[in-house]
């Protein structure tokens, strides 16, 4: 799952001395300068018998408005559940507006935001056949849309059908999972695009309230995939016609959309037709949510540290490094560090560059200076990355592509450029709507130029992902260096390696393509379950050391600042975001 923010961005070089000076190592809160990087959990527990209503949060009160500042984050372009594949959009919608087959519930005993997979619209986590090529979900009969009408098995099946349509939803998660694993993969193109309207991949029985999904190949992770909004219902027929539906969705969660201005603001209000008895994990404490996208980072930091009326019932999804010391002192346990299975990457254009050029870029990137320029805290929210799979992911291989950790070494980069057949020229774009991204690009450009590259960096007012994920975009065709921030969709190498390196994958922004790698990615899911984690880790190492198509720059944690009247300030470890489901305003 991609991070909405296009580049890892942090300010204040003096903060280097604050990073990783000790700490609990167990995710507990510590004093300023004593935090350290937290690895995400390798597994997510499951509770197939969890039922609604969700247990009350201790001390929770109803009422009030929660304001969420998202510094430098443009947010989702639309709210169509089938299209949701960003951390920002999914974390908001999955928690508040749009339900699916399964979902995550925060473990109340966890200090690090660990989550449990539980049912959502399904009564359990699904019933697979022996070889995981068919899954049946019984849909509960007490869940409704915002107009009070019941959610039917047919509507769930229709929503799942939509996920097969890569033409209408080219950046949606169905391109990676539905179109790779469901029956008819590569043949059935979805309900809006396919010439063949008949598809046997999803069947429903409204009388029995069941949905059955048939697979093209074994897929034991269907219960995890079921937590994505693309595995939830959509209104039948023209009511859910894209792209219009993305601007006017029909809610089935505890909140519904009051207003939505892409790139600016999303306002949610209570959905009075949501039935808490039908929902094992969500709450409906606040009266209203206001999400402010592309918030100014410095201004947001000042608001959150002021403890004024505006900040008391607000939270921020980032605290800049220049405010880190004050934030730790002032906010205390309201400055929450959340681990996440996320990695930031540079992605050179594979066809137009050679191995030495790509390694030169890896040595020319000014890692810690770039993090600090964008507001991150080295050692706390960012640490150097050595692999595609992040720490905490089962099977991760601890290797170094060049025999050592890549660090900023301009002289080494120059040596590699001298051996390269690719011109020492870089063409890239950055998100100029965010001042931190602008500051980060300046530092990156200076580092590259110090290493002997000439750099053509152009700003864009829309998220660079709009360019990077469109192979037909003329600007994209002129680039030879792109980026991507990627978080696992569930704790498996299946959700890290293929989405970034499979030929034609949406977020393979460098257009890497090697048949041997594709073949191995097809083979691993057919192995015994206990062998798959190690196999993904080995493939990560093999493709990186042989081809080095993608440059890992950082493993990620996040810092969230919560106002003094936000109850239960916690994070969501399943997605690396604030735990919106369980927050409330203290009255």
From TrEMBL:
Residues 32-49 have a biased composition (Basic and acidic residues). Keywords: Signal. Residues 1-22 form the signal peptide. PROSITE patterns: PROKAR_LIPOPROTEIN. InterPro entries: Peptide/Ni-bd, SBP_5, SBP_5_dom. PANTHER family: ABC TRANSPORTER SUBSTRATE-BINDING PROTEIN, PERIPLASMIC BINDING COMPONENT OF ABC TRANSPORTER. This is Peptide/nickel transport system substrate-binding protein. It comes from Nocardioides salarius. The lineage of its organism: Bacteria, Bacillati, Actinomycetota, Actinomycetes, Propionibacteriales.
């Amino acid at each position: 799952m991609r991070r909405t923010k296009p580049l890892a961005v942090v300010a204040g070089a003096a903060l280097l001395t604050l990073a990783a000076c000790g700490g609990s190592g167990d995710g507990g809160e510590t004093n300023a300068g004593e935090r350290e990087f937290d690895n995400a959990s390798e597994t997510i527990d499951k509770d197939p018998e969890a039922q609604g209503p969700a247990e009350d949060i201790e001390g929770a009160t109803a009422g009030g408005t929660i304001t969420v500042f998202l510094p430098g984050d443009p947010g989702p372009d639309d709210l169509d559940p089938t299209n949701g594949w960003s951390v920002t959009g999914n974390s908001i919608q999955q928690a508040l507006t749009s339900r699916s087959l399964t979902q995550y519930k925060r473990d109340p005993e966890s200090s690090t935001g660990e989550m449990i997979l539980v049912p959502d619209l399904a009564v359990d986590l699904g019933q697979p056949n022996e070889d995981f090529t068919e899954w049946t979900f019984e849909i509960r009969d007490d869940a409704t849309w915002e107009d009070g009408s019941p959610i039917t098995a047919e509507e769930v099946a229709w929503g799942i059908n939509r996920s097969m349509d890569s033409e209408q939803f080219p950046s949606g998660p169905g391109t990676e999972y539905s179109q790779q694993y469901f029956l008819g993969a590569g043949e059935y193109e979805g309900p809006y695009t396919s010439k063949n309207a008949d598809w046997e991949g999803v069947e429903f029985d409204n009388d029995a309230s069941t949905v059955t999904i048939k697979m093209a190949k074994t897929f034991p992770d269907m219960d995890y995939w079921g937590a994505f909004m693309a595995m939830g219902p959509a209104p039948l027929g023209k009511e859910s016609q894209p792209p219009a539906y993305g601007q006017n969705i029909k809610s089935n969660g505890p909140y519904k959309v009051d207003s939505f201005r892409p790139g600016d603001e999303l306002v949610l209000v209570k959905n009075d037709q949501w039935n808490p008895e039908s929902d094992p994990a969500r709450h409906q404490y606040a009266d209203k949510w206001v999400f402010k996208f592309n918030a100014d980072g410095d201004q947001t930091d000042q608001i959150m540290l002021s403890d004024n009326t505006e900040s008391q019932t607000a939270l921020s999804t980032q605290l800049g490094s220049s405010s880190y010391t004050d934030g730790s002192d002032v906010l205390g346990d309201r400055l929450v560090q959340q681990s996440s299975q996320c990695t930031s990457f540079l992605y050179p254009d594979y066809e137009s560059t050679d191995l030495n050029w790509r390694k030169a870029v890896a040595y020319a990137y000014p890692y810690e200076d770039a993090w600090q320029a964008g507001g991150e805290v080295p050692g706390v929210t960012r640490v150097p990355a050595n692999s595609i799979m992040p720490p905490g992911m089962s099977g991760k291989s601890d290797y170094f592509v060049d025999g050592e950790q890549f660090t900023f070494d301009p002289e080494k980069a120059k040596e590699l450029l001298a051996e390269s057949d690719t011109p020492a020229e870089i063409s890239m774009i950055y998100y100029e709507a965010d001042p931190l991204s602008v500051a980060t690009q300046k530092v990156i450009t200076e580092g590259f130029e110090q290493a002997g590259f000439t750099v053509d960096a152009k700003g864009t007012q829309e998220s660079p992902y709009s360019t990077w994920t469109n192979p037909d975009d003329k600007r994209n065709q002129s680039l030879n260096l792109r980026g991507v921030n990627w978080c696992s969709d569930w704790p498996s190498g299946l959700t890290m390696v293929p989405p970034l390196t499979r030929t034609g994958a949406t977020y393979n922004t460098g257009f890497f393509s090697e048949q041997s790698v594709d073949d191995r990615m097809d083979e691993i899911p057919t192995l015994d379950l206990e062998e798959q984690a190690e196999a993904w880790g080995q493939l990560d190492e093999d493709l990186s050391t042989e081809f080095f198509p993608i440059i890992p720059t950082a493993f990620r944690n996040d810092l969230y600042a919560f106002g003094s009247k936000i109850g239960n300030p916690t994070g969501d470890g399943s997605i690396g975001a604030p735990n919106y489901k369980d927050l409330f305003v203290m009255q």
